[in-house]
Design brief:
Order of helices and strands: EHEHEHHEHEEHEHEEHHEE
Strand order of the largest sheet: 5-4-3-2-1-9-8-7-6
Number of helices: 9
Strand content: 15-25%
CATH topology: TIM Barrel
Number of strands: 11
Number of domains: 1
Shape: globular
Helix content: 25-40%
CATH architecture: Alpha-Beta Barrel
Radius of gyration: 17 Å
Length: about 230
């Protein structure tokens, strides 16, 4: 699994100690972008939709595209703009605005959306971000875990080998059963001060964790007292 560490990481001296890591820089807090591009293995450019949703403002799509333009080349990639809480049609309309090569953008499937839409995205793009939403908002909850099982069952059954799947805000699940190819979190950025630990020390521990599975085997899911 590729571990993307969210920014901003302060002070700058702590960020610079993390050279050689993979970083996630959000359009909502992009101050570390130049340093991350200089010292990071790869940078995930987040569209900031989650921050916009939680803070109650609209995502500036044109501004986002203008920002990522100079940085968007392999191995760096961006999260295609999405609508938190939106319908499938809302998501499709947003995805149509993507002006770059598909290999450089990852569309988002929200766990609250139909499984059929997940398979559609995987088929059309070859890779996908998984985002927690609706009744599956709480990462790691029982309902969230069952939904993740459903998603991986469907992808494995349809495609055999899994498409590249990135877990948004799912880095804490890196030791769990879902064979995510990559994931991100802001754990280091938010907590290295309160834990009185250096950012690099926290990143060392996190980067040493990987999913317990490489290949997904169909998992039986209990729903309303029945297994399926």
């Amino acid at each position: 699994m590729i571990h993307y560490h969210g920014t901003p990481i302060t002070p700058k001296s702590e960020l610079l100690k993390m050279k050689g890591r993979n970083f996630c820089v959000s359009y909502a807090a992009r101050g570390n972008i130049k340093d991350c591009m200089r010292i990071g293995q790869s940078v995930m450019l987040d569209n900031g939709a989650f921050s916009a949703f939680t803070r109650g403002f609209d995502l500036d799509i044109n501004g986002f595209y203008e920002w990522i333009g100079p940085y968007l080349c392999h191995p760096h990639w961006a999260v295609v703009p999405d609508v938190i809480g939106g319908s499938v049609e809302d998501q499709r309309k947003m995805i149509k605005t993507w002006p770059f090569n598909k290999s450089l953008g990852f569309p988002v499937w929200h766990l609250g959306a139909p499984i059929e839409y997940l398979l559609e995205l995987c088929d059309q793009w070859g890779h996908v971000c998984l985002g927690s939403s609706a009744q599956y908002w709480q990462v790691g909850s029982d309902s969230w875990a069952r939904r993740m099982d459903e998603a991986f069952n469907a992808m494995s059954k349809t495609f055999g080998r899994l498409p590249w799947t990135h877990g948004l805000r799912m880095l804490a699940q890196s030791k769990e059963r879902w064979p995510l190819a990559s994931a991100d979190s802001a754990n280091v950025a938010r907590n290295h001060h309160s834990n009185r630990r250096c950012a690099e020390c926290m990143a060392n521990r996190i980067d040493g964790s990987n999913p317990i599975k490489l290949i997904w085997n169909h998992k039986k899911i209990r729903t309303k007292g029945r297994l399926c």
